[in-house]
Amino acid sequence: MKKRNFKKILINILYITAIIFLSGVFVTLFLFIYFASDLPRPERYADHPKAQPTKIYDRTGENVLYTIYGEEKRELTNLENVPDHFVNALLTAEDSNFYDHFGVDFRGVGRSLITNIRAGETVAGGSTISQQFVRSAFLTPEREVIRKVREIVLTLELERRYSKDEILEFYLNQIPFGSNAYGIESAAQTYFNKTAGELTLAESATLVSLIPAPSHLSPYGDNLEQLMRRKDHLLSRMHSADLITEEEFEEAKEEDLVFHRSRDYLRAPHFVMEVKSILESKYGEEFLKEEGFEVHTTIDLELQKEVERIVKERISQLQHHNAHNAGVIVLDPHTGEILAMVGSVDYFKDPLPKGCTPGVNCKFSPYTNVVKSERQPGSAFKPFVYAKAFKNGYGSNTIVVDERTNFGTESNPYIPRNYDGQFRGEVTLREALAQSLNVPSVKVLSDLAGLNDSVEMARELGIELPRPASFYGLPLVLGGGDVRLLEVSYAYGVFATEGYKNSPIYISKITDREGNILEKNESNQKRVLQPSIAREITDILSDNNARTPVFGENSPLHFPNHEVSVKTGSTQNFRDAWTVGYTSSRVVGVWVGNNDNSPMYNASGVSVAAPLWRDIMKEVL
Description:
Radius of gyration: 35 Å
Helix content: 40-55%
CATH class of the domain at 77-262: Mainly Alpha
Largest sheet: 5 strands, mixed
Number of strands: 18
């Protein structure tokens, strides 16, 4: 009887146990299906195109000038491009059992708790790398039980579908490091101005130490010392685990870390801002932040850096002239490609002088691109008027008289003077242009070229003169109309190409993230001037003997072993100083002055702009 009852009880226990077990399985399955039903599928992550920034490169396609990010700076990379010491540091800090667990590591939770107690602060997390990736890529950050269940469910599904290396690569491209940097590649560039593959052991340990609290531990904030402690503690753990040697440990601890400032990512700043404006007008700002375009520009980065150096050096020597800013353009006249552009002495100069309002009363405004600002060119405008006179049948040996002349009326006189106050009597057009004589030049405009036709000539060569010719009047030939250095330099390029005009080219090609070419810009030459006229202007502007009586035999304009054509320009009260010159293959335009149009002191084109121009032309030659 007792034996029969015991057997019955045992059967009932087994029956109940089976029911409980099956119910548990059923409930677990139900919960898994319930929580997984509206979760994003892990497999979609690998196929879904991530938002990628647009990169602007120099002409070689190797140097990044600027990156157009959205809210997330993200640079995708492959696991093979990440150094082993970074991976070891990451696994040591975040998930030492990564390659052994199935996505959730309960032993790791206990171990991280003990580690944090010993360190006296949170230096290790309990979530696995798989969980962290799921949380970052698919879920919201709030801390709720249901969200944690969803996290575990999706983590198990992720581990089932992908290899450990694939998950690790997903994580490395997804995890935030602060300063809007997402992924290891972006973090390496943001904090250390290098690729992930170039990171040192100390830099790797520092970036890994940022992961738990990237904002709080930012090296640009007040908690740098805490970040360094975490870095050293991580290096110690790696040493204890035999992942690094004693020597590597000591060297990494002592390494002097230099954190990069993000503004240095902007190279050739005024040029890049022009490129950015062009791209945004075509594609829209938000589109550029996500589509991963690669924009190859025309800029010669090495030349650009040298021009920037020369401009700073020269302007620093001109303070006694009250000259505080300069602009430079270097271009290829045969293609229209811009090779160098400096829109101010220092785009990054900060702070501005006290009481200075950019564009109003600043002698120097860093962000204003003076290459595209309207300024008066002085005598740098004269070649266009002479070109029109040559087109009308006159030649370089045509005679005009340099004498005191009133081009106005007795009640409203206009009596221009030469720069040196002297008159020379009969001079040829060659002498008048080469020596930049004002009175003969006004005569060329009024009697040989014609005001209306000269304005039209300048427009045909690429200079925008929006007002009617009568607005400018005869002072136009002496620089009485506002023009842009960019346009004047391109117009001089017409002489260099013996009559062909090109529009400015900033971008050589644009490719999408797959490498497909979306745009490819090529030369768009158009003949606007007869070759004989262009050659005559070139010959006069390179004739050192013809200009010697005014400029001297060894002026900054003369290159004994090269044919270089050049013209200076100065405006009244020395508000603008210009020098624009060219060879058969390059044009260099220079402006010196102050943004607020305040006058310089005894600062003509030949005295302040020409030395700067010469230094740059030497680099070009």
